[in-house]
Structure formats: C-alpha cells, structure tokens
Design a protein that fits this description.
Two copies of one chain form a homodimer. The first copy, chain A, is built from 15 helices and 31 strands. The first copy, chain A, is of the alpha+beta class and 578 residues long. Chain A starts with 20 loop residues before the first helix and ends with a helix.
Amino acid sequence: MKWTKTHIFTLKEAPSDAEIPSHKLLVRAGFIKKLAPGLYTYGALALKAIRKFENILREELNKEDAIEVLMPVVHPKELWEETNRWGEMGAGLLKFKNRNNHEFCLAATHEEAVVDYVRHELKSYRDFPKNIYQIQTKYRDEIRPRFGLMRGREFSMKDAYSFDIDQEGALKTYDKMYKAYQRIFDRLGLQYRIVQADAGNIGGSQTHEFQLLADAGEDALLVSDKTQFAANIEVCPAIDPVPYVSPHTSELPVEKFATPGAKTIADLEKLTGIPAKELVKTLYFSANEGLDPKDKSLKAFAVLLRGSDEVNPIKVKNLLKMTNPPLMLTDEEVKEVTGANPGSCGPVGLQIPIYADNGVQPLKNYIVGANEDGFHLKNVNHGRDFQITQVADLRMAREGDKCPESDGRLKPYRGIEVGHVFYLGQKYAKKMNGVFLDKNGKSQFYEMGCYGIGVTRTVQACIEQSHDQDGIIWPKAITPYHVHICHLDPKDESATAYVDVLTKEIETRNWEVLVDDRDERPGFKFKDADLLGFPVRIVVGKKGLEGNQIEVVNRKTKEVFKLPKEAVVQKVFELLGN
Amino acid sequence: MKWTKTHIFTLKEAPSDAEIPSHKLLVRAGFIKKLAPGLYTYGALALKAIRKFENILREELNKEDAIEVLMPVVHPKELWEETNRWGEMGAGLLKFKNRNNHEFCLAATHEEAVVDYVRHELKSYRDFPKNIYQIQTKYRDEIRPRFGLMRGREFSMKDAYSFDIDQEGALKTYDKMYKAYQRIFDRLGLQYRIVQADAGNIGGSQTHEFQLLADAGEDALLVSDKTQFAANIEVCPAIDPVPYVSPHTSELPVEKFATPGAKTIADLEKLTGIPAKELVKTLYFSANEGLDPKDKSLKAFAVLLRGSDEVNPIKVKNLLKMTNPPLMLTDEEVKEVTGANPGSCGPVGLQIPIYADNGVQPLKNYIVGANEDGFHLKNVNHGRDFQITQVADLRMAREGDKCPESDGRLKPYRGIEVGHVFYLGQKYAKKMNGVFLDKNGKSQFYEMGCYGIGVTRTVQACIEQSHDQDGIIWPKAITPYHVHICHLDPKDESATAYVDVLTKEIETRNWEVLVDDRDERPGFKFKDADLLGFPVRIVVGKKGLEGNQIEVVNRKTKEVFKLPKEAVVQKVFELLGN
C-alpha cells in the first residue's frame, strides 16, 4: 500500500485529553480520531490491527468448536427484566425510548440475548455442549470516558457464552476457554497475568481476569513471589504476614475520654500515641441497593477495621451477597444512626449489624468513638462491650501481605483487564427458563459460562505495553503492516522500480508493506515511521541505491543494518521470523 | 463443518409475522432469529453469507482506492445540528439522552461523521481525491419493521463517501463507484436494474438506485421497452402516450350545479357521465415542514390533477424544494382554507398557490368543486376563472406512459433497493466548512459523493429473487457452504471415512462443505438440504457405497446424477464451475 493512496495523518502534539502513552500515540499516529468523548473513528491502520486481532480470536475459538453469530446491539427492556438486570445494571446501561414509546437499551453484555437466542432450540441433552460467540459493538454510558479506547463508550468486544448440561461439563468448557485465552494472549507476545477476580454484576462463582501488565493499567494486582497465585486487589485475600498478638492478657474497664478536634485516625494516633494498626475505625454503609425505588429505608450496617487498613467494598458486597458495592452513609445519616458526627462514632450501643475485619479480631482494650461528639472510649472489647455480627476478610490486601498459598509475599503490579472468564452456573438458566430434557427425560436447567475479550481495548493495551519515546512498537501478530519502506526519492524512476520489486518480494511471504511515497524530507519520514511503529523499516533512496547500500532497521531494538540490495529481503524475513 | 458441531435449527412453519418468501425462508432455515421487532440475531450460516458479501464489497471498493475505516454508531447532537439534519431527519432518527443529559442519536447515515473525520486533514488539493468507506451497523427507528432484514431497525450497511476538488473529479468518482457497484451486483449473478431515483434527505442532484428485481420488492420501477431508461416511480417523468386535445374550441360560462352525495371522482364520473381523465381533482397540502416547532402556520397550497391520475408527493416536494414530501391537510384544515368539505372543493376563489399537473394544462370547460358543500362548477377554465402558479409534472407515471428518451413505452417492475449512489456537490462541505487550498492557494469547498449498499438487505434480497417452493437457492458468491453432504449413516465407520475423504478433496479447491451427520431420517435431511439451499448436495449412505452409486444433486435445477465414487468430486467441481 502506498501512503498517498490511503488516509494516514500524523500529529506532532497529542491532544490535551490524552493522559496515557497509548492514547497519545494512537491519536498522534492518526489511528483513531475522537468524534465525541468516548466515541472514536478507527482509521484504516487501526482497523487493520483490529481485524487481525479479531482473526486471532476466531482461529483460537473455532478450535474449541465455538460458533460465531451476531446479536443485536439494541435490546428491548422486557428481555433485561427477565433477569432483573434492567434495574441492577445501574446508570452504565444506556436506556432510551423509541418513537413508539417502547423502552430499549444499548447492550453492554449479551447474557439475556444469547439465552433468548438458544432457549427454544437447546431442548435435549444431545444438543449440548454449545459455545456461542460474537464480535460486536458494545456500549457503556461512562460518566467520564478516558484513556482513548481503554475506557470508551462505544467499543468492540468478543463475547462467548457456553451451555453445558452439568457443572462438570461447564467447568471443562471453562478450562477450554481459559486455555484458548492463554493461546490468544500468547500470540500477542506480551506480558500478562491471569488473576482471580470479582464477578461484578455478571454473577458466577469462578472467574479469572486476563491482565496485560502496564504501569498505566487501571487495575491493581497482587502476585505471589513464590507461587502462581495472582489476584485483582478487589478480591485478593488479605493475610497479615505476621499474626498480631495482643500484649493485653485481661479486659480493662471501659473509660470515656475527651478527644477534642480528633476527627481522623491520624489525629487519634497523635493524641494517644497508639499506632494506627492498634486503633479501630468504624465505617457506616447502607445495604439498601436502591433497586426498588419505593424502598427508601436506610438498612445501615457498620464495618470495623484497624486504623491502618482500608475497607474493600467488593469484599463487603460479596459477604452481604449484594449486587453492587454498598454506598457509605452520608454524615447526616451517620448522625441519625449513631447520635454523633463521623470521627466520634463507634460500635458500642449501636442497634445495627456490625461486621469486623479479621484484623480487629485479635485486638483487646482498644479505642473507638464514643458516639458522642468529641469523645472516644478506651479499653473497649468486642464480645463484652458490643457484639460482632460476623468476622471476615474485609480489608484491602497490600504489598507485603502473605501469599494465600505459600509463605511467600505479595508483590504489586498494574494491569489492563483485556479478558475475563466467568463460570455462571444456572443463574441465567433459572431466571430465563433455560431448560433441557436429560437422558431420563427429566427437565433440568443448563449450566452457563461467559467469556469476554475487549477487542479495541486489547489493541490499545498492546501499545501501552509496547512503545518507546518515539512511538509504537507493534507486536507482529497485529501490526497493521509489517514493513515500512521510506521511499526517499518517489520521483526517481529507478528508485521507484526498486521499491516496487522489493515490495512484491516481501509480499510473497504474506508480509504487508506500506510505502511512504510522500514528497517529504527523509527526517520527517523517519519520525513518522518510528511513530507508526511497524516492525521493520527499509530506507530506499537514489544515493543508497547508487552505492548499493540499503538501510534496514529493527523498530524495536533500533538496530540498523546497511546491506547490499541482494541481502535486503533475506534480512527482512529474518527480522520477521521467516 | 459438521452439523452437530455448529448451531443450525430448522423450523417447519414460518412465523406469523413473515409476509414474504425470503423472510419466511431465513427464519425457517434458522439463519436469523428475532429478538424484538426489527432486531435479529444472525446465526452462524447467515453470518457466513454476510461476511462473504462484505468481502466482495471490500475487493471491489479497494480496486477503486477506497479506504476502509470504522466510524461510531452513536453520534452527538451537535454534529447533526451543523447540517440541520438533527431536525430534518424526522422520527426515523433515534435520539436519546445519556446519563449526563447530553443528546445523541443512533446514526442512520454518516455524512456528518465522515466530514468531521477528514475536515482537519484534507487541507490541500494534493490530498484529493479520497474515498472513505465503512461496513457498519445502522439504526432506523421504523414504526413498523417488517420483511425481516429488508426493513429492520438495526441493519448493516456499507457506506462510502468521496471527496474531490471539483465537480469534474466528483462525477468521475461517481462513475467509478457506479461501475464498482455494477461489478458487485454482477458477482451475485442476479437480475438487477439501475434506475433514476430521488435523493431523499441525503441531498444531491445526481443519483441512481441499484434495484434487485423481485415481485415482493417495495419499490415500483418503470423501464423503457426501447432504451436503457429505467426509473423509480418516485421520480419517473409522466408523459402521456398520446397528447390530449380538448374537443372544446371556446370557453363556456361557468355554471354551479348541485352534486348531492358526490364525494369522489368515481361518484362524479357516474353522476355526469364525463370520464375521470377529463375531470379535475384538487388536493390540499401544507408547505410547513414542522422543522421549526414554533412555526404553527398552515402554508396551504393546492395541487390540480386529472381525476384519473395520482399525485406524486416526491415530485411536489422537489418542485417546492422541500426537505420531505408535504403533508396533506386534514379535513378541518381543508374546510378552513376552502369553506367546504373535501369532495366539494376546487381552485376557484382560493387565496393560496395552485400547482397543476401537465395533464390539466390542455383541459377546457372542466368540472371542479364549488367550495360549497354539495355543489360543483362546470365549464371552469384556468387563466380565466383562477390562476395557476406553476404547471409541472406532478403525477405518478404508470405502465404504458411514454419513455422519456424514445417513442417506447414504460413497463413496470418491482425492485428491492440494495444500492444507491449520490452526487452531493458542496452541500455538506458548505455546511461543515469542508475547505481546502487549491493550486492557487485559494480556499475552496470540496465536492462530495456518497454511496450506500445495504449489506444485510442485499443478502435477503438475493433469497427473495432466488428460491423455490422447497427453500433457498443461494448464489454461489455468498452461499454459506457450497456443498451439503447428507451423510445417511453417521454411525457407519466406512461411510464416515468416505465422507471425510470426500470433504477434504472438495475443500482442496476452497469449496466449503457442510456434513449433515445428525441421527435423522434421510427424508428429513433432504428437506433440510433443500431448505438451506447450498448449490450442490451429495447423498452418501452405506447402501449407495456398497453399490458404488453416489447421488449428486444440483440444488437449482434439481437434476440428479448417480455416479460411481471416483466421478463424484469431478461432478461437484463441474457444478460449481471449477
């Protein structure tokens, strides 16, 4: 392909809304262009990379007998009401009314649609297993879209949905998809981790995320330094490296004491000289999820943590079997429940459920708010002074925590979630009457799994992991073109003839070539070649041809080879791996 | 591909909402499944046909240096306001507000989006010509979606947009695209016509529709029996085969006469004995397009036609340079304007513009409504009794009308519009500041064209034209599979071994094979093979193999060949054309 025959435009400056390198580079290289926040046009080059990644997805999924279909983007409300997700999905699900006043949404996921698609046809155990996938546009009404394709509104996903007759079959399918995903991300040749994760409002009991490692990743991961254990911080078990043993052997009498102006754990630490990790903080949440708009009740509960720990809302959600993480009470609501302002509140005397993190369990004779402004209580002990409803792991894990599988320690990474596999069980089958007749003629619910890969997100994530100060370094598997010929003298006939011959020879092995035939200065062309980032660059000019010296450059290593004409193609094939 | 490894399900009965053969067949063969009215899931087989058609589109467009990109489905209101089409597009443009209360639409077409995409990059005359296309989901909020993929809400289109520096270049590009479209539809091997058409609210002065011929087509076409002339009835010039000459030589005095109960032309014909073609009817419309919601004025005008003719609202729209066809006045509005109920109204004494069809011009001493209930006027003559604002071609053309290019006659056809090419001129460039610097450094507006092909619609239209009472007859170019092997004894090892060998041999020439390996009766499999409609069927059973007699069937002609094993592959290649 000749540059002048396509539509490529590069920019010197990244737009002001681009915060991370991959977003800046995609825009600067003209791969994407913003129509509105979170809405991008994919240019010819970006589309080539996307299509190549789609084909990798198809190849690996078809190996597992997954069947490609295409479901609508627009769904009727009635479909989502069958699973209650019309309400549960929250404001991210974009809803609208059509001209006939019927309600619809732009689908963010397709569990309901796929069950509707198969539920009249999968009737007998002989119809299983089935694994149905699509590569389709999705929509999430992000409040603040950012990071380009990473957190956009309109994006492309590959989503697969599996149907099995029992749990054993479903877990076998889960395993096949897990391995297909490994093959897919292996083919990109990038660094990734498979981590334990939360199922969000998809539901399901077993789930793993595929995370491409990158400093700008939105997800915090913790990885064992001894085993294969890796988890998203959202669900990572928090285990103290050294168990705490209280120095107190007996429970002392409770005392109220004045703590004027002490509103935070830091204040209290300063005032009392007791370290934060031996203080107890009380947080207040509501278990009312707001799914029933008529239900305005507060349903308050408290969570106790050591002063040095952070609450993990996902763990609280999962403990209480909620659909979404609970909302914290407002200051007014806290006062209504405790009688005091936040900063002076504690668990003693409350009439609400109290959940305590594991870290609070071994503490004795500790300090908590007195539920009276400006006062705290010391020598408080659970069991004696108040009752804990349940002790559980409710804090955020952190670097240095113990590995749950060994005596190793956890190390932090940042990741970009590019894939996610879920074992769903019978959740959707039960809500949507997904039944089949088993071998004995008995009606049973089938078991499902769902499996997503962010197509456009992965393409950008590759760049986030693979770039340098000059531009993109495309993985060979999805690079729009493999070879970038900087044709320095496009008006020179013999140079052009050589470029044409060279292009054809390289194309014999199905490597794709872009020829920069613009009437521009060499330095300008080299800069653009680095920015676009195809694996191999060849520089062809009249002067080089006269001296029989052609420059071949490895984009990744910047290594330069000055070769006679007859050695060029061989070097290109060598650099590309065949 | 084995039937049991994919997800194909056939139905005995078509759903009650399917009115035309192609819709019935697509559903019965399990190619599509309705999620909600106008929203369909494309099954594995349909998707294969769609992808093949998409590849034909890409191949032919890339030959013309068209560049594929992908633009968003969701567009912000501000974009469409630049061209006033936010209001002009009418209720078919689905609009919604997001969670931040910003307004968006689901794009039905992408002129605005593509101009926004290129307007900062196409700066110099050297950047032209450019032709940018995409294959993307489109949405139209149809009130009554019907005919399956033919008039759905969500559908797939290929839309291309060309940019040239002047009209000469733009018309050259138009011609290239016209020829590319011919090649595309030629490759389907189906009957189509290229007809003159109306530009609708896309705008533009030159436009052709590509119409696949089919009895169930929604468009009425008129085609010359002498020349290449063909037009959509919406724009077809209406020329009387024999010009009318009035028998009257002088204008007689007007007389009012009672016509109790005569409300229609047929009533009047009966009452007076004068044939409809010599009577004059008056229709009332409003020129208020409702684009400005504050403007509630009526802006009434009248259209005169012979009693035997039908008004063509598109011609009226174009004469008055309106954006959409005008709305007829309600009975109350007619009474307000004329003082009488429809049926007794006429042009005499009205204070509104009056447009007359060519057919009215030669009439003399004719009858019109008296604008008084129950009365008509006879011996009315324009010029004397009332003034015509403009005489024009305003009636529907019909079978037997004169060909505008010869002394031939027009013949009617029904067609399905599958493609449309428009020359747009500077309409969008002017509204969206699409400028470039010409050779002299002067800023100029560029010239555009736009070119659409309904992807999913074309796939269904192929079936509408190519089927029989037993099922689909796929055109070879887009058939999901080429060969359908009915494997009658899937449990027999040697039969299965033969089927495997046969499949591999056929696949060596890149023909695709579906093997029906279900545990079903032969008759059931044959019926499904006819329904699915792949070009060649092979029947393999234990018995046939023992007698060395394999059945090969041509789906289209139903011709059956009974052949020894060694002759099967050769016959298949012969039937498929290589």
